[in-house]
Write a structure and sequence with these properties.
Puta_zinc/iron-chelating_dom, UPF0153_domain, YkgJ family cysteine cluster protein
Length: 82
């Protein structure tokens, strides 16, 4: 599965404990990453400062669902279970 450009669910729903430029303590679940632009695209894509956890994320139907809203729901549910 390929990432749906402009979704941004993986940059909003989960917590990220790794430092992010502009968010040195990472980000809590449900908070929009500061590096997510107005089009829900990562400003750090391809940048070596991008956290490894973000670069390692592989989109799949189990996490991304059938549309952006479903992805947000699925990732939020996974976050709450962990």
């Amino acid at each position: 599965m390929q990432c749906r450009l402009g979704c941004g669910a993986c940059c909003i729903a989960p917590s990220i404990s790794s430092p992010i430029p502009g968010m040195p303590q990472g980000k809590p679940a449900g908070e929009r990453c500061i590096q997510l632009d107005d089009d829900n695209l990562c400003k750090l894509f391809g940048d070596p400062r991008r956290p490894k956890v973000c670069g390692d994320f592989v989109p799949c139907e189990d996490v991304c669902g059938k549309d952006n809203a479903h992805a947000m729901w699925l990732i939020t549910e996974l976050e709450q279970c962990t």
